[in-house]
C-alpha cells in the first residue's frame, strides 16, 4: 500500500483538477492513499509548521458529498483552477524555506510525489527532488505548450479554444466598425497558443516570437502591407494576433506589446503616407483597437481533449509509480501516452534558458526558431 503526494506548481490552467481526479481514482483502485499538498511546496511547510496534519490533506477515502450522492471527486474534472491551489516558485533556495519543505516531506512520509507543473516551475522542484532523492513523477501542464518532449500539455487545448472563440467574437464588432483588432495572446516566450488560436480563429496576421522575435521595421512593413492589401480588397476590418513574447523594437519585453504595435503601425503608416506612398494614407485613418486576452485564457472549464489528456496522464503517473519507475515526465507523443527521463527534460529547459541570452537579432532569431522546432 503506497502513500502518494500530489501538488500543482506554477500558473494554473484548465485541466489541473482533472489530473488530480484521475490520480486519486487510479490510486483508489490499488488501495493507495493520496495526499493533496495545498499551494505547491508550501503544503510541506504547513505540515512542518503544524498548520495542518497529513490526515487533513487526504484526498482518497473522502466522501465530500454533494446532493444526489455525487462525490466532489466525480465532478472535479469539469472545473478549472486547482482545488489544491498553486504557487509560482516557492523559494526553496531560501535555507529556512528549504528546511521546512524537507521536514514536511519527511513527516508526510510518502513513497512518491506527483508534480503537475510547467516549464517555469519544473527545474526548481527537480533540483530539490534530485538532491533529496525523492521519487517524483511530473505531469506537464501549461497553456504555453512549451514543455519539451510532449506534443500536448494539459491546459493548452482549452486555451486554444478560448483564443479561437475570442477572435470569432471580435470579428463581428470589427466588421461593424471597419476596425483592425489587435489581439494579445499569452504564451510567455512561446508562440504555440497564438499560432494555433490565430489560425483557428481566422486571424489575418499572426506574430510569434519564434519567427518575429521583435518588432523590427521589416515586421512593421510586412504588417502594413498586409493590412493595406486587405483594405484594397474591400475588406475593411481585420484581426491581428500578437503573442506576448514578441519584443519591442529595442528587443525588450513590453507588458502590453499589442498597444506598442498599434502605435508603431500608426506611426509607420503615417511616415509612409508622408513619403508619398499614397496608398498608405488609406491605412493611416483606419481605426484600430487592442484586446489583451490575459488570464481569461487560463480559467475556462477544460475542453474534452484536456480532460482526456489529464485522465491519461494521471493514470500513467500511477502506473509508473506501480512499476517503481521514477524521475519521469509523462508525455503525449504520436497519439500515445508515455514517459521521458526528467533529466533530459530539465537539460533541454536549461539549454533554452541559456539560449535566451543571445543578443544579436540574427542569433536570437536562429535560437528562437531552434527552440520552436524542438
Ligand atoms: O505560463 C503560463 C502563463 O499564463 C503565461 O502564458 C503568462 O505569461 C504567465 O503565465 C502569466 O503569469 P502570471 O499569472 O504570473 O501573471
UniProtKB/TrEMBL annotation:
Single Gene Ontology MF annotation: identical protein binding
A Pfam family annotated for this UniProt entry: PFK
Domain Phosphofructokinase: 3-321
Domain of life: Bacteria
Cofactor: Mg(2+)
Cellular-component GO terms for this entry: 6-phosphofructokinase complex
GO biological process entries: canonical glycolysis; fructose 1,6-bisphosphate metabolic process; fructose 6-phosphate metabolic process
InterPro entries reported for this sequence: ATP_PFK, ATP_PFK_prok-type, Phosphofructokinase_dom, PKF_sf
Keywords, comma-separated and alphabetical: Cytoplasm, Glycolysis, Kinase, Magnesium, Metal-binding, Transferase
Coiled-coil regions, chain positions: none
Pathway in which this enzyme or protein is active: Carbohydrate degradation; glycolysis; D-glyceraldehyde 3-phosphate and glycerone phosphate from D-glucose: step 3/4
The family this protein is said to belong to: Belongs to the phosphofructokinase type A (PFKA) family.
Name of the protein in question: 6-phosphofructokinase
Organism listed in the record: Crocosphaera subtropica (strain ATCC 51142 / BH68)
Primary gene name: pfkA2
Amino acid at each position: 500500500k503506497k502513500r502518494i503526494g500530489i501538488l500543482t506548481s506554477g500558473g494554473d490552467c484548465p485541466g489541473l483538477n482533472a489530473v488530480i481526479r484521475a490520480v486519486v481514482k487510479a490510486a483508489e483502485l490499488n488501495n493507495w492513499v493520496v495526499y493533496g499538498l495545498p499551494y505547491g511546496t508550501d503544503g510541506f511547510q504547513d505540515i512542518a509548521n503544524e498548520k495542518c496534519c497529513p490526515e487533513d490533506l487526504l484526498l482518497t477515502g473522502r466522501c465530500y458529498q454533494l446532493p444526489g450522492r455525487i462525490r466532489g471527486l466525480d465532478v472535479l474534472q469539469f472545473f478549472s483552477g486547482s482545488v489544491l491551489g498553486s504557487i509560482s516558485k516557492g523559494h526553496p533556495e531560501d535555507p529556512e524555506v528549504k528546511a521546512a519543505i524537507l521536514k514536511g516531506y519527511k513527516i508526510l512520509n510518502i513513497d512518491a510525489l506527483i508534480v503537475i507543473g510547467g516549464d517555469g516551475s519544473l527545474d526548481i522542484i527537480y533540483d530539490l527532488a534530485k538532491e533529496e532523492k525523492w521519487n517524483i513523477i511530473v505531469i506537464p501542464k501549461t497553456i504555453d505548450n512549451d514543455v519539451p518532449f510532449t506534443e500536448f500539455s494539459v491546459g493548452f487545448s482549452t486555451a486554444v479554444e478560448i483564443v479561437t472563440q475570442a477572435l470569432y467574437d471580435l470579428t463581428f464588432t470589427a466588421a461593424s466598425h471597419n476596425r483592425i483588432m489587435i489581439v494579445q495572446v499569452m504564451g510567455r516566450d512561446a508562440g504555440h497558443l497564438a499560432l494555433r488560436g490565430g489560425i483557428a480563429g481566422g486571424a489575418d496576421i499572426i506574430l510569434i516570437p519564434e519567427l518575429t522575435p521583435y518588432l523590427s521595421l521589416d515586421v512593421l512593413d510586412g504588417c502594413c502591407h498586409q493590412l493595406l492589401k486587405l483594405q484594397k480588397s474591400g475588406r475593411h476590418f481585420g484581426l491581428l494576433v500578437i503573442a506576448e513574447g514578441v519584443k519591442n523594437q529595442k528587443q525588450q519585453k513590453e507588458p502590453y506589446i499589442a498597444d506598442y504595435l498599434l502605435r508603431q503601425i500608426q506611426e509607420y503608416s503615417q511616415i509612409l503616407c508622408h513619403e508619398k506612398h499614397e496608398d498608405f494614407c488609406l491605412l493611416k485613418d483606419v481605426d484600430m483597437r487592442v484586446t489583451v486576452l490575459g488570464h481569461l485564457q487560463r480559467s475556462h472549464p477544460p475542453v474534452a481533449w484536456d480532460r482526456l489528456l489529464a485522465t491519461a496522464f494521471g493514470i500513467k503517473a500511477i502506473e509508473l509509480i506501480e512499476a517503481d519507475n521514477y524521475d519521469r515526465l509523462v508525455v503525449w507523443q504520436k497519439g500515445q501516452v508515455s514517459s521521458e527521463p526528467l533529466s533530459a527534460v530539465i537539460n533541454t529547459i536549461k539549454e533554452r534558458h541559456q539560449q535566451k541570452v543571445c543578443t544579436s537579432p540574427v542569433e536570437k532569431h536562429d535560437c528562437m526558431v531552434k527552440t520552436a522546432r524542438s
